[in-house]
Amino acid sequence: MKIEHNSKMSITEGVIWKQILLYFFPLLFGTFFQQLYNTIDAVVVGRYVGKAALSAVGGATGTLINVLIGFFIGLSSGATVIISQYYGGKKKEEVKDSVHTAIALAITGGLIIMLIGFFGSPYALKLMGTPKEIYQDALTFIRIYFLGTVFNVVYNMGAGILRAIGDSKRPLYFLIISCGVNIILDLLFVVVFHWGVGGTAAATVLSQLLSACLICMVLMKSDDCYKLYLSKIRFHKEILNRIIHIGLPGGAQSLMYSTSNLLIQSSMNSFNINVLAAWTAYGKIDGIFWMIMNSFGVSVTTFVGQNYGAGKQDRVQKGIRVCFGFAMASALFLSVTISIFAASIMGIFNKDPAVIREGLKILHFLVPTYCTYVLIEILSGALRGMGQAVVPFLLTFFGVCVLRITWILTAVPVWHEVRTVIFSYPMTWSVTSILFLIYYFYYKKKTGLVNINL
């Protein structure tokens, strides 16, 4: 499979809104199919195993997985930023060293996460107060899932490398293939072999192995400066330091989101099984919003990174405005659509009337507040693309993590209701959006977006 010139897209020239959408849609569909992995798991076990199994493959397990893998993906975003900047600045040798350092980091990080997740998950599940009726299924699912962490991390790093140079199509193709395999294996392992939640986890791991192999094959077959040589996979100290400098705040930011969500999940565990199943189902529906926002976030990071590296500050500012407009319109459209078809969507995951009733309460409360988050994703992505990662971390730390944890620890014990717990989302999104807006205008006025020598 030889890489052709039209497989990557120059985003340092041309019509901005067209280029952003041409980059965004393959990224969105790719994120959709990645999200579909867990959604299919939830649908299959919810329909064929039961609501206890549905709670086991989402909820606590999903939150724990996001804590570890989310941290590393945030850290690896540093590689995407510097590769996009070097590629935009036509620094081929630096691109090559960055690619091999990034893959070395993915393999090492994946192995570390696998060990921590496999041996630490029993303690984490108990610490979160996971109900006894779902504990064993949750432990089985999460341990098998963590055995495939290396494949997951290598795929995400490889996909990040391709997206950094403007290629968002190939990661999409590979996810479509692996997602199709995941659906087939889910039905085979759960419906035919009756392996329960262990079968869904095994299907996901095998599918992730396939996507990792495909992404590595493309990198190895490339004839451009980002070509991967297995013999050259190693850490380049200066590049690794830059990746960590830019990516560590992003990883810490993801860790903070996940940590606060762990606390929220612990609060949810104090309610009945119907609420837990409904929260798990809502999490899959909510994933549609997050994949759209994440796709716009990655789009603006890559667009800003390449144009910032090329010294085109005008395009940087216009690109940010265009991405924000598209993201806000998407959030509003999604809020209206999900609200209208709420009952039918909840019924896809479980037919129990009690579960649907609890799910509708959650959905109708949170979905209309999506627009309060948009600024966070767009401005934090833009700032990372310019190499500014520390301030987004600090703003998120105080605006999301500290405020959300404070709310959960103080308000929820007093008003022990589901709505009290989930109110922490729109409240912290609104506050953090205001903080990001204030800082962005301050940074823009102070620096004029002057290019930094790489």
Which labels suit this protein?
454 residues, mainly alpha, 2 domains, 82% helix, 0% strand, globular, disordered N terminus, disordered C terminus, MATE_fam, transmembrane, MdtK-like
Based on the structure, what is the oligomeric state of the protein chains?
single chain
DSSP summary: helix tally = 17
Return Rg in Å.
21 Å
In the residues, how many domains can be counted? 2
Q: What is the string of helix and strand elements?
A: HHHHHHHHHHHHHHHHH
Uncertain regions spanning at least 5 consecutive residues: 1-7, 450-454
**Number of beta strands:** 0
User: Strand share of the residues?
Assistant: under 5%
**Biggest β-sheet, characterized?**
none
Topology at a glance:
Elements: H1 16-48, H2 51-57, H3 59-88, H4 92-127, H5 132-147, H6 149-164, H7 169-192, H8 196-221, H9 237-268, H10 273-309, H11 313-340, H12 342-349, H13 353-366, H14 374-385, H15 390-414, H16 418-422, H17 424-447
Helix pairs in contact: 1-2, 1-7, 1-8, 1-10, 2-5, 2-10, 3-4, 3-5, 3-6, 3-9, 3-10, 4-5, 4-6, 5-8, 6-8, 7-8, 9-15, 10-11, 10-13, 10-14, 11-14, 12-13, 14-17, 15-17
